[in-house]
Design brief:
The complex is a heterodimer of chains A (146) and B (431). Chain A has 146 residues and is an alpha+beta fold. Chain A has five helices and four strands. Helix content of chain A is 40%, strand content 20%. The chains are: A alpha+beta (146), B alpha/beta (431). Chains A and B meet through helix 1 of A and helix 12 of B.
Chain lengths: 146, 431
C-alpha cells in the first residue's frame, strides 16, 4: 500500500478535487485537444502565447485523479515560461514519471514522481503535457497518447 | 436504482436445509475446481490473487497447460501432409478438437467448424468472404449498440468496400436490446444481422432465438458473436438456428491465438476463400487453382496446432464439469455480488438486464475507474477498467469508462467480499 500512498499524495487529491486554471480562455491563440483512448480521459488546453512567452493557460476535461492533478499542476508551473522552457520542462517531466533518468528537482511537479511505480499510469500523467506540445505547435488535430 | 431480476437460482434470505446443503456443495465444488488452476495459487503484492478479469481472458487449468506441453514434447509435426507417424498423430490431435467443438456446440457436421485465430478473425472472415462477395450499395447490415469493436469495425470496412450501410439496434437504460426497434430495422434490403450473444460490458444475455426467428422470416442470415457466451451459457447452434457463431478459445479456459467460426455448411460451401495459401487448395497450377473442401478451404497455412490441442483439453474440462453446474455457480455469484455492489453509495451499475451472465460494470461518483483499477490492483484484485472495446456503448450510457468485474467458474463469494471491501476502502481514500 506504500506505493499507493506515494502515488496518491495529498497534493494530488487537492488538485484533483479543486483543479487550478480550469476552464477555457476566451482569447486563446493556441489550443489543442488530448485524448487517452486507454481510459477515455480527455483534456482541452487553451493558451495565450505572446512573444514566445506563455501568458496564460487553462485546461478543461474529464479524467482520473492522476491526469486531472497533472494537468492542474502543469498549468500552474507554466505561466510566464517561454516556449523553450516549457518544452524543456516537458522532457524533464517525462523523465520524472518514467524514471528514465535522474530527474531534476521540478518543484511541485515532483509530487507526480510516484507514477514511476505504476507504468500503466504514465499516460495519465503525461496526457496534459502531450497536449501542451500540440498546443504550442498550434496543432488543431486532437492528440492521443497512443 | 433498479436491480436486475434474476430468474435463475434467485438467492433469497431463506435458510432452509436444502439451500444450505446446496450452498455447501457448491462451495466444495468450487474449492475443488480452484485446485485445477495453478495461477490462482499465486500472490501479488503479498496477497492471494483475486482474478475478476475473466471477460478479457480466463485462466487456464493444468489440463490445458499440460496438453500443449505434451504436444510439443511428444507429437509436434505439421498436419494434413506428412506420411510419417508424428504428422499423423498431430493431425489426429488437431482434428479430434474439431470433433469436440462440434459436439460442444452441437453442430451438425465437423466440417462446419473452421479454426481461426479468434472471434475477431472469425467475424472478419464472414465480412470479407460472405459479405464482400454478395453485398452491394443499398444493402443493410444490422448490428447493435452494445457490440464489441470486433463486431463493428469489420462491418464498417465491408460497408466502405461495398456501399452497404450499418443499422444499429438501440439499447435500453437497463442494457437490453430494443427488440421492437430491431424488428422495424429488418427490411428486405437487410442482408445480415450480426449481434452479440452476451454483452462483454453489460453482461446482458440477448434474446438471440427471437432475433434469429425474425431475421429468418425475411431469409436474412444471422451471425452471433459468442465470445462472452461460450464458457458461461449453453450455445447449441442447431437449437439457436444461427447461421454463423464465432468464439475464442482463450475465453473458455483454452489457449490464446485460436478460435472457431461455425457456419452452416450450405453457406460456407458457397463462400469464396478468405485467405490463399497451403492447405486450402486441392491443386495449384499457374493456369488456375482448385480449392480444398470444407473446412480446409478456410484454413490457409499451418494452423495453431498446439492451440487446437489445448482448446480440445479445455472443452474436455468444461464438459466434465458441466455447463449446468457452472451456470448455477456463476448466477449465484452474480446475484450475491450485484446486491453488495449496488448498495455502495454513489455507485451506479451499468447494465441491469433481466438475463445476465456474471459481468458487473459500474461507475462511482468522484472516483475515476482508472483510479479504482490501480487501487484494486495493489490489493491483488484484477478488474478491467476502460471502455472494454465498446466505445459506442460508453457513449450511449454517457460515461468515458467503467470498472468491470467478470466472473468465472473458480471465483468465490469470499473473493467478492474482498472486492466489495476494497471498493469501500477506495471510496474512503478518494473522499
Amino acid at each position: 500500500m506504500n506505493d499507493l500512498r506515494d502515488l496518491y499524495q495529498d497534493m494530488i487529491f487537492d488538485h484533483y478535487r479543486q483543479p487550478r486554471n480550469y476552464g477555457r480562455l476566451e482569447h486563446a491563440n493556441h489550443k489543442a485537444e488530448g485524448y487517452n483512448p486507454l481510459c477515455g480521459d480527455k483534456v482541452t488546453l487553451t493558451l495565450i502565447l505572446k512573444d514566445g512567452v506563455i501568458h496564460d493557460l487553462k485546461f478543461e476535461g474529464a479524467g482520473c485523479a492522476i491526469s486531472t492533478a497533472s494537468a492542474s499542476l502543469m498549468t500552474e508551473s507554466l505561466k510566464g515560461k517561454t516556449v523553450e522552457e516549457a518544452l524543456s520542462m516537458l522532457e524533464d517531466f517525462k523523465a520524472l514519471v518514467t524514471g528514465a533518468s535522474v530527474a531534476k528537482d521540478m518543484g511541485k511537479l515532483s509530487v507526480l514522481a510516484g507514477v514511476q511505480a505504476f507504468p500503466q499510469r504514465v499516460k495519465c500523467a503525461t496526457l496534459a503535457w502531450h497536449t501542451l506540445q500540440a498546443a504550442l505547435n498550434s496543432s488543431t488535430e486532437p492528440v492521443t497518447t497512443e | 436504482m433498479k436491480m436486475g431480476e434474476f430468474n435463475m437460482n434467485k438467492q433469497g434470505g431463506t435458510s432452509d436445509a436444502s439451500t444450505v446443503e446446496s450452498e455447501i456443495k457448491t462451495h466444495l465444488l468450487v474449492q475443488h475446481w480452484r485446485k485445477d488452476f495453478p495461477i490462482l495459487h499465486t500472490s501479488l503484492y503479498g496477497k492471494p490473487l483475486v482474478y475478476f478479469d475473466n471477460a478479457a481472458t480466463t485462466q487456464k487449468p493444468s489440463i490445458v497447460i499440460e496438453a500443449e506441453n505434451h504436444y510439443y514434447r511428444h507429437i509436434n509435426a505439421n498436419v494434413h501432409r506428412g506420411i510419417h507417424t508424428l504428422s499423423q498423430q498431430a493431425t489426429e490431435a488437431f482434428e479430434a478438437t474439431r470433433n469436440k467443438i462440434r459436439q460442444f456446440i452441437n453442430a451438425r457436421y465437423e466440417h462446419e467448424i473452421i479454426f481461426v485465430r479468434g472471434t475477431t478473425e472469425a467475424i472478419n472472415l464472414v465480412a470479407q468472404s460472405f459479405g464482400r462477395s454478395r453485398f452491394k450499395a443499398g444493402d443493410e447490415i444490422i448490428i447493435s449498440a452494445m457490440e464489441h469493436h470486433s463486431n463493428i469495425v469489420p462491418w464498417q470496412i465491408l460497408c466502405q468496400q461495398t456501399g452497404a450501410a450499418l443499422r444499429i439496434v438501440p439499447v435500453s437504460d437497463d442494457g437490453e436490446l430494443d427488440i421492437n426497434a430491431y424488428q422495424a430495422l429488418l427490411k428486405p434490403k437487410t442482408k445480415l444481422v450480426a449481434i452479440t450473444h452476451v454483452s462483454n460490458t453489460l453482461g446482458s444475455i440477448n434474446p438471440v432465438k427471437t432475433i434469429i426467428k425474425h431475421a429468418h422470416e425475411l431469409h436474412v442470415p444471422v451471425l452471433l458473436d459468442g465470445a462472452q457466451a461460450i464458457a458461461h451459457i449453453p450455445a447449441d447452434v442447431q437449437d439457436l438456428d444461427c447461421d454463423f457463431y464465432a468464439f475464442s478459445s482463450h475465453k473458455l479456459y483454452g489457449p490464446t491465438g485460436i478460435g472457431v467460426l461455425y457456419g452452416k455448411a450450405e453457406l460456407l460451401d458457397e463462400m469464396p476463400p478468405y485467405q490463399g495459401g497451403g492447405d486450402m487448395i486441392s491443386s495449384v497450377s499457374f493456369e488456375g487453382t482448385t480449392y480444398n473442401k470444407l473446412p480446409y478451404k478456410f484454413e490457409a497455412g499451418t494452423p495453431n496446432i498446439a492451440g487446437a490441442v489445448g482448446l480440445g483439453a479445455a472443452v474436455d474440462y468444461l464438459t466434465a464439469i458441466g455447463l449446468d453446474a457452472i451456470v448455477k455457480h456463476e448466477q449465484s455469484l452474480l446475484s450475491y455480488a450485484t446486491e453488495l455492489i449496488a448498495n455502495i453509495p454513489e455507485l451506479r451499475i451499468i447494465g441491469n438486464a433481466t438475463q445476465k451472465t456474471g459481468i458487473i460494470s459500474w461507475v462511482m461518483a468522484g472516483v475515476h475507474p482508472h483510479d479504482i483499477g490501480t487501487f484494486l490492483d495493489r490489493q491483488a484484485i484484477a478488474v478491467r477498467t476502460g471502455h472494454h472495446c465498446t466505445m459506442p456503448l460508453m457513449e450511449r450510457f454517457g460515461v468515458p469508462a467503467t470498472v468491470r468485474a467478470s466472473f468465472a467458474l473458480y471465483n468465490t463469494k469470499n473473493e467478492v467480499d474482498k472486492l466489495v471491501s476494497a471498493i469501500y476502502q477506495a471510496r474512503e481514500l478518494f473522499k
